[in-house]
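Subject: complex prediction, re-run

Hi both,

The earlier run crashed halfway through, so I resubmitted it with identical inputs.
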Amino acid sequence: MAHIKVPENLPGILGPMATSPESTKALRELAEVLLRDPNTLTSAEREIIATYVSSQNDCCFCQLSHGAAAAEYLGGNYELIDRIKRNFDAAEISEKLKALLEIARKVQKGGKQVTGEDVERAREHGATDKEIHDTVLIAAAFCMFNRYVDGLGTWQPTDPKAYREMGRVMAEVGYVRPNWEDPNPDEPVEAA
Amino acid sequence: MAHIQLPEGIPGILGPMAFSPETAKPLNALAEVLLRGPNSLPAADREMIATYVSSQNDCYFCQHAHGAVAAYRLGGDEKLVNDVKLNFESAAIAGKVQKGGKQVTTSDVDRARQHGATDKEIHDTVLIAAAFCMYNRYVDGLGTWAPSDANMYRENGRRLAEVGYVESTAQLPPIEKKYAQFGSHLGAKGKPVEDPDKARLTPGEWVW
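This time it finished cleanly. Structure:
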């Protein structure tokens, strides 16, 4: 049971979001800009960074929902997402994404952990300043989202399959849903 | 030196915010609603939660910037702000959130409730603490520059308390103009600062 009263049947972040439309508007816009706006990093790459940080923070809801979004962008490749979470250095992803994930890994532990060498390595593999900026901010933002979700003790389905439809909606419809300002949405996100 | 090319002399979070106006917008909107929106928690208390979490995350810029706002709202009581950073009794939930969301226990929440905290106040405390785990990492993860002059933070604390986070960002265009040589996307074109002294902002020109 959540630490505060939230609408029933809303998983993870959707419960507290429903109680706080003003902060939710800013949070949804931030997720939309970071994960779906035009960018030289693909949405799949950005969702992978979000998923990896969420797994490092041990946030079940965020890692499974954003992992599902990443997998949906990749034609349903859920196995790759699992391999990245276990050990991204051994996964079949670009050297640039590995270097960016290393920066994200450091940010998760604390901003000061990021070193000049981490950034140089990303640059050597072609990362631009904007890509490095966005990686740091995505990783930082998920240190927020994860704490919001777990700090309020929200209900989170544990079956990865429960997140597949949610991931599809996140990838196809995005985060700024038409009814985000409704404090008591009747339907969970799957119906968006 | 920052990890990416940012205009010199702009403190803390303002550098990356000027670099990336599209993300600055929701970041400032979030700070505005969390720290200045209508709330049964006084704004000073909310700034104190932000300051405490920032000090636990060892983010020099954020703890001094928001500590100055808190002190200004408390009639200049910098001692109280420092005491809270060193030894708090009222920000237990925020301290747990800083370590990790799962650290918050039912007894932490019950204790807050026994002292009169509402669900919204508990919600906002968790989200403020979580948000500063983001802002702090954004500021330090990009290796930004932070001034050490306490007077600069005092002056900006007053401005942030009175003008706010969104309004302050609305003042970005003059700074963009000042750094017009970098293009509209500040620093993104990677041109070096020709004269850092000339580029350095005076306290009155800060915004973040």
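Chain B is about 60% helix and 0% strand.

- K.
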